[in-house]
Amino acid sequence: MSDERSKTIAKFNMCRCLIFFGLTMVACAAVAIIVCGVVIVKPVVETNSLEFEKTTCTTTKGYLTGKWIGCGCGKNCNSAYPCLRILVTHGGQDSGTYSGVMFENEQRLNGNGHLDEDSQCATQHCDQYRNKNMDTVKAFNDTYGAGETYGCLYHPDDTSKVIVKRLFTWDAMFHSMLWPCIAFFLFTVLTVFFCYQCYKAGKKMSSLPITVVPGAPAAQPGYFIPPQGGQARAQYPQAMPMQQQDPYKTAYAPDNKGYTYN
């Protein structure tokens, strides 16, 4: 095998590996875009949390609704936590006082803000053991219990719901989509480039002649060269010539007189 053909085959195999790598990275970037879109961008866009303004909230009432919300705590793990609803009063742009329901962040607002009152849970904690979930919810209620004053955020167009903290900023949302999109674009371009290089290498490889090593066995007229490690096939036996049989020597006429009729 010539050096040029060996190099071409090596390049072809390398391109195939790079194509597989590129497709894997494209898939990872696509998954990252979907996950960031669902976890970060969706709550921010649907709640307009970037338009929330700072204000001061005072809790007027915090109580357990009596409803347990089911949640997943891992693989093959299901649990539930008690729903804590917190009512607050807060200031507005016109120096007025408004009443609203408090949520821990925009994810809680996006997930529970549109539900019934007994499902408008201020916080969520999902542990395998329900008693731990209850303790965590009670600790949150102690921190933001009745009479407590703290900073919060509200939307000027909807003063009925507030959040304690903004989980994602504009920068977080921007970068969560920017870098996965850049990675998706770059690896897509690289994968297309690797496919083109692989196509060129395959086309060149098919055009190169196969060099026979001097001294290697070659085919001769009338002979079959078996592959290495195999055995030559045995020649087919020649057909045996048919022997003519005396028509009078039959199983029905052992006396060689042919067929007899009564």
TrEMBL record:
Keywords: Glycoprotein, Ion channel, Ion transport, Membrane, Transmembrane, Transmembrane helix, Transport. PROSITE patterns: PROKAR_LIPOPROTEIN. It holds the Pfam family CaKB. It is found in: Membrane. One of its GO terms (cellular component) is voltage-gated potassium channel complex. The chain crosses the membrane at residues 20-41, 177-196. Its main location: membrane. One of its GO terms (biological process) is detection of calcium ion. GO terms for molecular function: calcium-activated potassium channel activity; potassium channel regulator activity. It is a multi-pass membrane protein. This is KCNMB3 protein. The lineage of its organism: Eukaryota, Metazoa, Chordata, Cephalochordata, Leptocardii. The gene is KCNMB3.
